[in-house]
Design a protein that fits this description.
The protein is of the alpha+beta class. The chain has two domains: 60 residues, no CATH class; 184 residues, Rod shape-determining protein MreC, domain 2 (Thrombin, subunit H), CATH 2.40.10. It is built from three helices and twelve strands, in the order ααββββββββββββα. The C terminus is likely disordered.
Length: 303
């Protein structure tokens, strides 16, 4: 190494050690004790200290912001995960609440039904091209379950058992063209016979044998009459959607829609009481033998 470089390095070291010493010496003195050299040093060092402090504060602020953003990102990820878990928990609780309400309604229906019942879950559905349910399959097989047994839900009449095979039960819906049940208007007690239309495009029923003198209006609820010894009395079947009055002596044309939403059906009750015990005691007998015979034959006709 050349002598110039050696002296240069030594000089730089001396300056770097001496200058801070004089800066610190001048800054530690009282203002009245400062001499001319101290004031000169402070005057020169003040801008350097100011800009140096400003630069360091800026670097410190940028670093703090970076660390803060890193922490914020981590917190956001944690919050996003927690929110997803909470939303899933809320969804499960809401579903449990819906299930509990359905089970509570089913239990209330069982307690108020004057028949021995067997509960079952819907495990399958048959759809057509219009996404309409044409048949439901239950998960309860039993030696006590036989074809033609009524099937109901808290919303009303579902249909009747059409076939039992092992642990599955096929149910014919109330909108099937081969299904029919004797009904009465809940408001006016007008009698009629609800039969499914089998319309593939919509859930619909037609109400037959409604006398032209009977009062039936749109929106009236049709419930089982208890006649025909099949369904107990008072179970909702359909709600009137259209009434066309005919001249005296001819039956009215009445259309209705079922009270049960088959696409949302989850649990049902099968009335396991024999048919001759289903009708409640002391129920009035029908005044029209033809209508009663029609109700019994339709109730006992195998779909």
């Amino acid at each position: 190494m050349s002598p110039f470089k050696r002296y240069r390095d030594a000089g730089i070291v001396v300056v770097l050690l001496t200058v801070p010493f004089f800066f610190l010496r001048g800054a530690m003195k009282r203002p009245e004790n400062l001499n001319a050299m101290d004031r000169t040093i402070l005057r020169v060092s003040a801008p350097v200290q100011f800009y140096g402090a400003t630069i360091l504060r800026g670097i410190s602020s940028i670093w703090s912001d970076y660390i803060y953003l890193v922490d914020v990102k981590a917190n956001n990820e944690q919050l996003t995960y927690s929110n997803a878990r909470l939303r899933e928990s809320v969804r499960r609780l809401e579903q449990q609440q819906v299930d509990n309400q359905q089970l509570r309604r089913l239990l209330q229906l069982r307690e108020t039904t004057p028949s021995d019942t067997v509960s079952a879950q819907v495990v399958g559905r048959d759809f057509i091209e219009f996404f309409r349910v044409t048949r439901v399959i239950l998960d309860r097989g039993s030696r006590n379950i036989r074809p033609h047994m009524p099937v109901i839900s808290p919303d009303g009449v579902v249909g009747a058992v059409v076939h039992v095979a092992g642990d599955s039960i096929d149910v014919q819906l109330s909108v099937d063209a081969a299904f029919g049940v004797d009904v009465e208007d809940e408001r006016t007690h007008a009698r009629g016979f609800v039969r499914g239309t089998g319309d593939p495009a919509r859930y619909a029923c037609k109400v037959e044998m409604v006398d032209s003198r009977d009062e039936v209006d749109t929106g009236d609820l049709l419930v089982t009459s208890g006649k025909g010894k099949w369904f107990p009395r008072g179970i909702p079947v359909a709600r009137v959607t259209k009434v066309k009055t005919r001249e005296l002596g001819r039956d009215q044309e009445v259309e209705a829609s079922p009270t049960v939403d088959f696409s949302r059906l989850d649990a049902v009750l099968i009335l396991a009481t024999p048919a001759d015990e289903t009708s409640p005691p002391n129920s009035p007998q029908p005044s029209d033998p033809l209508r009663e015979n029609s109700g019994v034959s339709a109730a006992r006709t195998k779909p």
